[in-house]
Amino acid sequence: MKRIIHTPHAPAAIGPYSQAVEMGGTLYVSGQIPLDPKTMKLVEGGIQEQTEQVFKNIGAILVEAGYDFSNVVKSTCLLSDMANFKAMNEVYGRYYAENAPARAAYAVKDLPLGALIEIETIAVK
pTM here? Predict the structure, then answer.
């Protein structure tokens, strides 16, 4: 049975999608951009600050659904500029210091609201 996940501790969807959907023991977390869930504005700072906020948002959704970062099996990182990859990777590595998930990282032309990064996540119990 499909379960829609929503938490006020992560940004509300800014379009016709759910924060996450769980189906058959797998959690699909929609791409998270660095929005502060209280203000719904991009956090100030550069790629490291934005990546940190993205992980806070992902973490809140994982917790709401009964998962944690150890359950993450796949991440897709979308960057506004591959020049930000190294700095993003430093923050990313703090969340996945051991048993890191599979990952893809791409540079894209634009991200919503001018964000520098967006990360989507798949977790399995």
Answer: 0.96
